[in-house]
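User: Structure tokens for both sequences below?

Assistant:
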Amino acid sequence: MNEVILHIHGLTLTPWKLIGLVGTFLFTARWFVQFYATKKFKRVVMPMSFWYLSIAGSVMTLAYFIWGKNDSVGIIQNAFPMFVSAYNVFVHLRHHQPEVVSPGGSEES
């Protein structure tokens, strides 16, 4: 996984670096998702996709720092947000009330 995929103008791309870059992109994309949801609803909103992007980005960057770079600072930096995001998803799924359609409701008109 450390073989060079691409080398342009001093930039070296390896499979691990690609995993780290995609993870960073996903972790950053969550803020654009949150911004869009807040703008759409005209109030501060944290959509579930924010937390899913947080987990996916954290897992990928954590993998990069564990196996690709072996960097303890990066490991600590990504482990905590991953734990918080996973906890928030767990709490949401545990307390999420499924939508119930009642007979004779407005859905049937």
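Moving on to the next sequence.
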Amino acid sequence: MSARPRYMISVAAELAGMHPQTLRAYEAKGLVNPGRTPGGTRLYSDEDVRRLQLIQQLTTKLGLNLAGVEHVLRLEDELRRVRARMEQLESQLRTEIHETHRQYRREVVLYRPQPPARNP
């Protein structure tokens, strides 16, 4: 999914199955934050459209009001941030583990016992 704004409000509304006025209302409530052209035209990204589709499902299929939708979206945003942070930490940990193993390989010297000395 792309975060790059690309759809005008009429296209985004059609993709999300909503009226353009509904998108404006959701923007006013802070549920979606479309990009803007220098002239002020709203442009929606694929992520915005996905979010609008989720709002549509939450309100129509689950019967949530907008306060409930706001709560769900806030939790989803937090979950996304936590997952991103977890992936970052996991990557750092893997790098550190790899570096530690590499150092062990450099420092490990095989021990080979010397044969007993022969008496002349």
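User: Anything stand out in the second?

Assistant: The mean pLDDT is 91.
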